């Protein structure tokens, strides 16, 4: 007989932390006119094991409200309805439309050095509960999307905002307007600090779109400074040799000082002659890749799983410059949930209903033409389920028992391709269609193309959608499911993003 599994020691401290986590979840109850309805809070990327030294590895796990069974039922029925293409004008987004003026992010309540840690914790717990209650009472509550419900994660943001002299906000340029919270800009202005916006992943969109976003954001927010960046795991600005993202590094412990405390900190500008730069952004925007490129080697592990960075880390770029990396968190907003899925705020593997996001994607891109798939039933009209079935048929995704088309797996595959940029949807700034010619001929285009490492001819060859089916099976265990090897010659070639820089050596 197999031996029984050895019991894992469970200390009193661990039990206390578990009870505190349950208590926090119980405070997130939604009060309605019909009574008190409990909404499940799901912990994203939950780790069943404990960290070294008995540390609670789930202390900073992302937490969101879970959809009700009724909502899931409605969404699954919608997946069978016909797709209605969206005009290009509707792809223009304005941050103000998704971050209402009366919806801000939670800020650290007033404190003083006479308060004990227990008093501080109780005050912050009470403040956060009142903050959630105020959101639930607002007119925007029904439109609210996923946002961070873990107080511990917000405490990390408070710590970074207190320490930094300059705030570095990193966004994915494809969804820049839905990742830029104006309330954070206003807060930094009130603190008399500087703010830099980094438009990341600019290799995935046309140069004119990048120029359009910079023009719009710098006009709407005059004190904002905008920079460009594109990350590549096998190359960085400091040289061609780099550690593979996610691998351990011998100098990792010597370079990074992990700090999980939320103790008091009185800000002093350029304290001890050191410039502190806080790095903030939503999950999966590429903060860790940016830090690794700045350091010239892997100092922060990279993962596509949201919430991979658990707590803020202090990294010394030079003896006089330090970077404070905050965990990725989702700010309260009315950004549509499908967009949050596409930009990586919520783990695709934990989606209970992916077809709404497939609809959002398919109504803005010609997916049948892009994927070169045939309708599974030979019809002329497409639905989100038809798109998934067509992709499952082409890739050979079948269920284990009944050998039916594995629609859910196909949907996950398409969403991962969209997250990676192999199926590329980007949103435009307001007025982009009207001023397209101006953006395509502005002086900024030359510099953007240099950062993208694209020549003019390469950009002309670059299609509106970048996709590469040849490496789609990176997320699949069965590599021989794809028998359509002739498609590799038809897929778009993606240029080396740092070819121009490499040529300077």
Describe this structure in words.
There is one protein chain. The chain has helices at 12-27, 69-78, 95-98, 117-137, 151-163, 182-190, 207-220, 252-255, 287-295, 337-342, 355-362, 367-371, 384-395, 407-420, 436-440, 444-452, 456-461, 499-502; strands at residues 30-32, 35-37, 41-43, 63-65, 166-172, 194-200, 225-228, 256-258, 275-281, 313-318, 321-325. The chain has 505 residues and is α/β, with parallel strands linked by helices. Among the domains are: 107-144; 337-433 and 454-502, no CATH class. It has a seven-stranded mixed beta sheet, with helices on both faces. Helix 7 (207-220) packs across helix 16 (444-452).
- What is the terminal separation in angstroms? 63 Å
Major beta sheet summary: 7 strands, mixed
Task: Tell how many strands the DSSP assignment holds.
Answer: 11
Which whole number gives the mean pLDDT? Answer: 75
Question: Which ranges are low-confidence, i.e. pLDDT below 50, for 5 or more consecutive residues?
Answer: 26-38, 233-264, 305-310, 461-505
Which structural category do the helix and sheet elements fall into? alpha/beta
The spatial strand order of the largest sheet comes to 7-6-5-9-11-10-8
Helix percentage: 25-40%
Number of helices: 18
Shape: globular
- Note the beta-strand portion: 5-15%
Radius of gyration: 24 Å
Give helix and strand order, one letter per element, not per position. Answer: HEEEEHHHHEHEHEHEEHEEHHHHHHHHH
């Amino acid at each position: 007989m197999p031996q029984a599994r050895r019991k894992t020691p469970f200390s009193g401290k661990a039990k206390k932390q578990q009870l505190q986590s349950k208590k926090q979840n119980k405070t997130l109850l939604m009060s309605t006119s019909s009574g008190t309805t409990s909404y499940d809070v799901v912990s994203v990327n939950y780790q069943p094991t404990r960290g070294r030294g008995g540390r609670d590895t789930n202390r900073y796990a992302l937490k969101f409200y879970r959809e009700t069974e009724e909502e899931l039922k409605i969404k699954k029925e919608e997946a069978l309805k016909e797709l209605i293409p969206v005009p290009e004008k509707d792809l223009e987004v304005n941050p103000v439309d998704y971050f209402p003026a009366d919806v801000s992010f939670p800020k650290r309540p007033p404190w003083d050095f006479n308060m004990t840690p227990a008093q501080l914790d109780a005050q912050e717990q009470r403040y956060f509960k009142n903050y959630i209650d105020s959101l639930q009472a607002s007119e925007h509550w029904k439109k609210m999307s996923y946002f961070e419900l873990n107080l511990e994660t917000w405490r990390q943001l408070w710590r970074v905002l207190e320490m930094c002299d300059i705030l570095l906000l990193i966004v994915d340029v494809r969804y820049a307007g839905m990742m830029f919270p104006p309330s954070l800009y206003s807060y930094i202005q009130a603190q008399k600090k500087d703010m830099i916006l980094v438009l990341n992943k600019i290799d995935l969109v046309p140069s004119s779109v990048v120029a359009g976003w910079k023009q719009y954001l710098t006009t709407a927010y005059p004190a904002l400074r905008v920079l460009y960046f594109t990350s590549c795991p096998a190359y960085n600005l400091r040289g061609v040799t780099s550690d593979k993202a996610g691998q351990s590094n011998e100098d990792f412990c010597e370079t990074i000082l992990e700090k999980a405390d939320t103790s008091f900190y009185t800000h002093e500008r350029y304290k001890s002659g050191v410039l502190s730069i806080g790095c903030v952004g939503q999950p999966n925007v590429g903060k860790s890749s940016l830090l690794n490129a700045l350091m010239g080697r892997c100092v922060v592990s990279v993962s596509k799983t949201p919430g991979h960075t658990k707590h803020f880390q202090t990294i010394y770029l030079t003896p006089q410059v330090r970077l404070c990396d905050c965990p990725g968190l989702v700010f309260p907003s009315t950004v549509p949930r499908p967009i949050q899925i596409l930009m990586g705020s919520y783990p695709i593997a934990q989606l209970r209903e992916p077809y709404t996001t497939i609809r959002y994607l398919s109504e803005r891109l010609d997916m049948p033409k892009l994927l070169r798939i045939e309708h599974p039933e030979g019809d002329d009209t497409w639905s989100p389920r038809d798109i998934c079935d067509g992709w499952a048929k082409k890739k050979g995704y079948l269920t284990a028992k009944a050998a039916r088309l594995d629609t859910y797996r196909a949907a996950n595959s398409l969403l991962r391709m969209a997250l990676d940029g192999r199926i590329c949807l980007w949103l435009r700034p307001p007025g982009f269609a009207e001023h397209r010619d101006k953006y395509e001929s502005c002086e900024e285009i030359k510099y953007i193309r240099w950062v993208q490492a694209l020549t003019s001819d390469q950009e002309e060859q670059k299609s509106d959608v970048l996709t590469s089916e040849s490496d789609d099976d990176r997320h699949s265990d069965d590599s021989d499911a794809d028998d359509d090897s002739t498609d590799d010659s038809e897929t778009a070639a993606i240029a080396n993003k740092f070819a121009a820089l490499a040529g300077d050596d």
